[in-house]
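Hey, weird one. I pasted the 1,4-dihydroxy-2-naphthoate prenyltransferase sequence into the form twice and got a warning about non-standard characters only the second time. First submission, copied straight from the form history:
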Amino acid sequence: MFNENRIRIWRGFWQLADPKIWIASTVPMAVAAALAYGLEGKFNLYWFFWSLLGVYLIEIGKNAVNEFVDYESGVDTYVTPDKRTPFSGGKKVIVDGILSLSEVKVIATVTMIIAGLVGIYVVFAREPEVLWIGVAGFVIAVFYSLPPAKLCYRGFGEFAVGLTFGPLVLCGTYLVQTHNISLEAVLSSLILGLLIANVLWINQFPDYEADLRGQKRNWVVRMGKKKATTVFAALFIAAFALSAVLAFIAGNPFFLLPLSAFPLARRAVDVARRYYDDIPRLIEANAKTVQAYQLTGLTLMIGALLNKFL
């Protein structure tokens, strides 16, 4: 019985952690490392590891907080089976009976405490100026769902995700590596911030009815799915426009490589506009948006490294 219970908790922890979505933070951190090496010839694997660990722990903690808040508000219980997708509906560990509400709260508390300790170590042993970036990321992660702020319930979730997984994670990682922040890092962070906000944006479509019923007033709920597809397209356009600005300011034409993700973005927008109310068909738009984010991150890395070697 003890072994079965331990296996259940371990399985629930990893479902809650959901490593496949760590790509949201891995991409900006990898881009930051490539920029640090490509622009300044600096890369420290030891401190990159601690940066990764701290951010991953915050992600797990944020997932856990979001899970129990959405369960207590009823949002997760309102998601009907036909609206469940791999990209939406929460982690489902409480709804599916894998973990209890109290177990999820314990995971949230423990992971956030350890993340805080990791951050303190990085600040005092490597880079004191990263403190405020770390504090901002920590606070946003905690209050993304948690009262009294409940950012994602009050229309600030999209901004919070874009800010965190764009400027905070990328510039924070770059700062730890180089002890400064370059304009190229800032522009790259804005590109990725817009794209990861767009991943959240399209992932909110399947949860529209449940979020509306649970008073989760994100911008897709506020605007309605049809109008929200226009913003979905605009965020892609803004990200690709910034790629051109980055290439011009850096004097590096290889920073135009992110434009290779344009066909993925265009397909995602076409699908969203046609099938915003047909969730099974909309899933292609969810997938293409994630792929556009990944390809943009990869090409930013290539652009940075080619700057070093060519």
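That's the output from the first submission. The warning seems to come from a hidden character in my clipboard, not from the data itself. The chain has a mean pLDDT of 93.
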